[in-house]
Amino acid sequence: MNIEEKVWVFLGIAIIFLILIADPKDSTNSVSDSKLMVMFSSLTEGQKFLRKLTWILIASFTILTILINYINQ
């Protein structure tokens, strides 16, 4: 397993972890207070950053997948 494949595996695990962390649905299912619902329905700066980071990692994962495929042919 070379360095590209190790980075590829790490990116895959990081993407899964970020998606599980950033899921806003789990915190609003059992909340009945309307103020709390409004707070969770708007995107905070942290959530915006997590979404951008997730998309950057997904793009990197896709590019690295193509690169590894090209190298191994």
The number of helices is: 4
| Unreliable sequence segments | none
What is the quaternary state of this protein?
single chain
Whole-number count of domains: 1
**Helix content, binned percent:** over 70%
- End-to-end separation in angstroms reads 15 Å
User: Into which percentage range does the β-strand content fall?
Assistant: under 5%
Coarse structural class: mainly alpha
Q: Which geometry do the CA atoms define?
A: elongated
- The overall pLDDT, averaged over residues, is 81
Radius of gyration: 17 Å
Give the topology string: H per helix, E per strand.
Answer: HHHH
Please tally the β strands and state the result: 0
Largest sheet, in brief, is: none
Tell me what the structure shows:
This protein is mainly alpha-helical and 73 residues long. The protein has one domain (3-71). The protein has 4 helices and no strands. The radius of gyration is 17 Å and the shape is elongated.
